Amino acid sequence: MEDDTAKSGLAKRIQLRQIEQTMAKTMAESKIQDKFYGEAVIEYLRDNGQIICISDDKTFTDLLREAVCTRLKMPSGCLSISSNADMLLHTLRHMISARNAPLLLIEQNLRGRDMTYLLRQLKNAYPELWIISVARETNKQRFVLLHESGVDNCIVKPIGVQALLEKIALTIKPHGKLGRVLEWARALMAQGEHLRALQVCKQALDLKANSAAALLLIGDVFRAMRQYDKACEAYENASRTSAMYLEPLRKMAEVYAETGNTAKRLECLERLDGLSPLNVERKLTLGEIYLQMNRPENARKIFDQAMTLSDREATEYISGVAFRVADVYMDKDPQTAVAFLQRGLEAKRGFWGTEDLLTFNRVGILLRRAGKWREAAEEYLKALKVAPDDENLHYNLSMAYLEGKDFESARASTLKALALNPDLPRKSSLIACNLATVFVRTGDNMHALPLLRLALEQDPANDQARDLLTQASREQCWSQA
What we know:
The protein has 481 residues and is an alpha/beta fold.
């Protein structure tokens, strides 16, 4: 009995020692890995790296300072921290022109403003920019949309110092043998060594069978070689390795667009929309294709979805979406174009700015073409609340009143436009003639005559101006007689 107890105690001590050794080994490996991540960030910062942080979360910005300045002992000058994004584009332009390699950490939602659209713009303008989105929480669909918008990594708060350094390190530098092999293959492809690049990709697949990254790169190489069928086959294989890996489908859609295969392109875009339904740009493209394929109901439905989604994004994006949809309908259905433009403006009510004036003007012009001068005037009056001293708006308002035969209102708006900019008639013969027409209709030939002479100076072939000049001159003579 005592022997059994002794054996049992010995077995427990051996098991405990094995656990302790395993834990010690894990801790040692963790420390080595932590050191590796820290060294990767230090190397990046010493090689013209610069971290830009846009966050109004003081706890997070303090953590970032602790990680970079205290833990890594790097100078504070390698960090740029701000609580707003107003000067971000200027900062990035300056850094990149100075050959810095910036990494941007930015809140997904900053002061109630969704930054997804801004991030997409930044990535399009500066593909070399690394972007890490920071949020307290993010759902699967938003996570996918962020990656589609060009975000390289995501941080969900709260986060510790070491985890933060790990995120930064994994963003700026590929790790592991597979990553280095793929970097080699990309370099060969960039040099036009396509066959050699394919051989290196094969080595990557030997390291990791069915590697989505390797298969994607194989597709890129075949695409560069204009072997589009093989490129799409590789992209399809890459897509099968991970249901949420959207890049292969996106590239397949691009290939089908290049080769003019609209049906296949539509199929890829619909699959992408099913996986990532928050991408407004893709919905707009889908709508355009549906219209091309004479599927108006599908187009209207997807455009409605795009408008609904755009309401959730930054307010300045809404006008852009409305313009895109309006452009599609402009020739086919101007009335629907007006509806989308007005919907976009209404969604921005309370946030109208000078950037919306073009939208108001466009709505007004479309309404005037449809004979709806009163509705057009209402749009111009809304715009004048934003820019009361814009002579172009007063001019357009006068034209709307003129078309509605409200001549006295037209004259008041014309006088206001000329008071704001006396050189307005010199912009074109048409403008000078239109302004003169208002004065002729109200019997104000004293103002009309010099404008008509100016119109004919600018364009002697302006028959309307010549006829009005004859009429106004005759009436002036009668009044003086």
